[in-house]
Amino acid sequence: MIGIVDYNMGNLASVSNAFDKLGVKSKIESNPDNLKNYDRLLLPGVGAFGDAMNHLEKNGMDEAIKEYAKMGNPLLGICLGMQLLFDKSTEFGSTNGLGLIEGDIVKFDKSKFDHKLKVPHMGWNELFVQNETPLFKNISKEVYLYFVHSYHTVCDDRYVIGKSYYGYEFVSAVQTDNIYAIQPHPEKSHNNGIKILENFIKLK
To answer: Which of 10, 59, 75, 185 has the fewest CB atoms within 10 Å of its CB?
Structure first.
């Protein structure tokens, strides 16, 4: 059974429907005490980092996610859910994240863009697989996925399993032990995204 963390900031129905297509049971979970009962946990998210952390902290979901990570079961963060796994974000000041992966979340620096681009980064873009990982098993080394974000991760290369390019190169997928995270939305990325979710289901 896959738990989908509900903290009032995510397109939960789309993620749940994607698992339905794969014939896998999932449940949208808002009770932090129940997280330990799931074989796998998915942390989705759309919106502002600070608001998301406030929602997680309000009922102790932040600590429950940290405890789940310690269990060793697969945990996947997507989009804002990926960013929340890191130490802190500079969005609207400085806000501490879950601190499960070392690194920061920063806004796209348009001064570094090689030509005029809009922020947020929205639409289809390539993710270039950097290292072998079971999350990207049987997926092209250059795969098109759907992105919607204004902020991105800055972290040590030892965590990086995927990079993308928008004005400049940025980190779009990471892994450390049983914790995985991707910036694009797999539930909006058609067959490529469904394959990533299928691989997540098969993680040991």
So the answer is: 59
Cβ atoms of 94 and 59 within 8 Å: the answer is: no
Which candidate in 29, 79, 91, 198 is catalytic?
79
Work out the average pLDDT over 184-196.
Answer: 96
- Give the helix/strand (H/E) hosting 2: strand 2-5
Q: How many C-beta atoms surround the C-beta of residue 199 within 10 A?
A: 19
Q: pLDDT tens, 71-130? A: 999 999 999 999 999 999 999 999 999 999 999 999 999 999 988 899 999 999 999 999
79 is catalytic: yes
| Catalytic annotation, pick one of 121, 149, 152, 185 | 185
63 part of the active site: no
pLDDT of residue 204: 84
Question: What does the longest C-alpha to C-alpha distance in the chain come to?
Answer: 48
Specify whether 155 is catalytic: no
pLDDT tens-place string over residues 170-182: 999 999 999 999 9
CA atoms of 191 and 62, how far apart (whole Å): 31
Whole-number Å distance between alpha carbons of 131 and 161: 5
Quote the tokens at residue 36.
């330990």
2-93+101-202 homologous superfamily: Class I glutamine amidotransferase (GATase) domain (3.40.50.880)
